[in-house]
């Protein structure tokens, strides 16, 4: 069956060799299940994507789009019998327009490559997930990726103006606009962003850009306890400061980073907060002052400001290296809850309690300034009992986040891992609205089925 | 039939008196058709709304939600045999939370009332349509309203975190979140914003807030021709300035404002640009300087900066009064195109050509900084031939905006007046996607039918 697709597009585009296909069947969500794929289509053009989707409709085969596979929720994992569409070869920056402050890119452009290209024009593409050196804009759009700067500058959806999409009926459409404003019809672009490949395959993206920000002032705080750091985060919000970054790294992560990159940070503090403010002039000075006061109000044991970019970069590098550094410690189950800022200290306290009660090591990194916490459950590889306890902790953290008015996923997406959490958070009526939209835009049920939303049976009920 | 609804909710809520109903059957789009309504439900609670929608489903009666009726596209106009749901009495500000920077409001809260309420806490709700003294947040959300500040601070959709909605199946749901970030499921909030009552009836809104901005520097430019002013607008973008306002008012409007409010502006200039920058300190000084240079590059005959809030307010008042002042001149047909910034001079030139060729007086006000132009076709009341010429001009302006890569509606919404333009702009496949979503969320076809999208026949084709 796959032969007809291979004949149409060529064997350099449609890979069926098992070893090659194996490299594409899952993302970086270690705990998420994945199935066997028939083939990988390494698309080079919208034509390849459209032909694949039309072939998939004809043969009733699921398609799973993917970028670099750096996702942490299993959204790009193969489902049995699927064709994976990899967009990595569609990696051209087609236009950078300084006057309109926009760029047009293919989905396989790596986030940092776009950022570097526009920086040459004095422009900035803000969304900066920790995966920015590897992840692609297409994947970022599919998951509505966040990052460090979001606390001030918003997430991927805030920067997507227009998309070219291959739809669930195999048409190539252009949605959105190039203009600064526009209210023509329903917001199909916003709907497509963050839909994790369940509503269409994105083949071109027009993003908004901003001018490069002013160099930040960086404020570091050391804390004895994670709850103290949480209190400082709440104080930042209470004082009305808008930091351009406010990150938390705990002792377990600091030690892992020390082992990984020999930075010598873990001797200094149990928990660090790294804050940045980037308003110019006296306003920036005042904001930095307020940030320092907020850290002090959270019982910081040490607070300092630096305007030395190198020193600031060392601190932020520790944050960025946390995840790769931790991977050496065992199997990681990554949480991604987001709670209202006022409840950050309480949520961090509850995570400590859950760690103790579930006898599970939980490390913490966080985009703390917007309440987006990433507790990381670490278990020794092969220890089944520990794994079960970690899974229990994962579920309890989700329940507590919902109880505090939060959400089960701040930026990683639902994928497979957060499907039970999504249904708990949103309830049956909101789930039904989403199922109805899914069925409307994917009438053949071929677009990444079984991700985000449960597969609906032909009669409309949920299997 | 309507008696059963009146019995259920009471005759103070369900109005059927013809004279009273007549006050609710159209918005301010003078040229848009409207039909006869069975009744107006002046809802006081989500219960009233839900009961009305359930009754409407049972009796196959269209419901048309409306706020203050200040719309300019006919989106809130009655369709024959409908029940109008007026949300004006649901006007409580339920919560202002400075720490989370959000407010929770009922849909009938007047925009300026919300702005005043949050200003007391040092906070700011940016979206500021010219109708802000009268229009409601619910209406603003329904149309994704824009305004003067959007050029820097974005539109209504950028500020809506969460909604309570009565759905097309009569359920009360809560969509979105209270947290700063979140990617749980499809973006139902973004979809609902700007859907003009076609996907649900909004009964509660949670909006993001910002800190109050710094006082702006205001730069005024006088120009002999509107194309010169357009060149200045393009130069502002080319220089990479981010103004917090950049408004255009032409001679016809200035004279109307003079007659209306005796401000004496029209003796000074043919066209004025009013720019604001609000970055603090030296950055603001530099931005103001760049704005002045851009105006000069557009052949301004006079350029001046003022930091006197009173003087700045006079200029901005002239902009805000333009529409009410013009209403005295005759019938107004209001355009709302938005074009890429680089094409602002060319679009303004084409509007001049169209005015001459169609022998129609066209005045211009514009949110020029984001390319959102409001050419206003003025015709003497009762002059049918002039009206036909104006309608021809309206159509040609839409065609030219599309040809220049623009959109048919920047901020007013599609309603009735822009339905042909929407179909032209987006083409059949994108229209079909929207029809599919409409059918998914409004399976009974009762939610403001015949607005934005043509009514689909039961078999799926478009009548």
Automatic annotation (TrEMBL), chains A, B:
Cofactor(s) the protein requires to work: FAD
Limits of the FAD-binding PCMH-type domain: 33-212
Alphabetic keyword roster: FAD, Flavoprotein, Oxidoreductase
SUPFAM superfamilies in the cross-refs: FAD-binding/transporter-associated domain-like (SSF56176), FAD-linked oxidases, C-terminal domain (SSF55103)
Molecular functions (GO terms): FAD binding; oxidoreductase activity
Disulfide bond found in the keyword field: no
PROSITE patterns listed in its UniProt record: FAD_PCMH
Coiled coil stretches, renumbered: none
Pfam families named among the record's database cross-references: FAD-oxidase_C, FAD_binding_4
Family named by the database record: Belongs to the FAD-binding oxidoreductase/transferase type 4 family.
The protein's name in its UniProt record: FAD-binding protein
Organism: Leekyejoonella antrihumi
Phylogenetic lineage: Bacteria, Bacillati, Actinomycetota, Actinomycetes, Micrococcales
